[in-house]
Specification:
3% of the residues lie in helices and 43% in strands. The protein has 127 residues and is mainly beta. A four-stranded antiparallel beta sheet has the order 1-2-7-6, with no helix packed on it. Strand 6 (93-97) and strand 7 (100-106) form a beta hairpin. The longest helix has 4 residues, at 2-5. Mean pLDDT is 83; it is low at 1-9.
């Protein structure tokens, strides 16, 4: 209770909730990061490891304002996801709207189903 009433206490933030799903030829990951400015979000990809970092900073208060209750976590958030080799990490797209960070990661061409042509003598047969 004392921590909740303390105006300068940065609480230990919980993990950024996320949804992940496939939509057509893309893998989509959506993170909830409400109250975080777009310039306080960082996204890195190294090999097949995706890292999302965000920081929720305290809002500026006018002089004389004394916080009575603070339940919204402040501080740094971080989440790492191991991506499959079937994803094209060179073409990740990010969008931030209404407190939701959405990443779209294309399925790599090499991972998509394809027809193999069989050479039979001089004729080619699709198989």
């Amino acid at each position: 209770m004392a921590q909740q009433l303390s105006p300068d206490t940065w609480s230990k933030p919980s993990v950024m909730p996320r949804d992940a799903y496939r939509e057509g030829d893309e893998y989509v990951v959506a993170f909830d990061v409400p109250g975080v400015a777009a310039d306080a979000i960082g996204i890195d990809v190294e090999r097949n490891m995706l890292t999302v970092k965000a920081e929720r900073r305290p809002t500026a208060k006018a002089g004389g304002v004394r916080m009575k209750l603070s339940e919204r976590p402040l501080g740094a958030f971080s989440r790492q996801i191991a991506l499959a080799d079937t994803l094209d990490t060179e073409r990740v797209q990010a969008d931030y709207d209404a407190g939701v960070l959405t990443l779209r990661i294309p399925i790599a061409q090499r991972a998509k189903p394809r027809k193999i042509t069989i050479a039979a003598g001089r004729k080619e047969i699709s198989g």
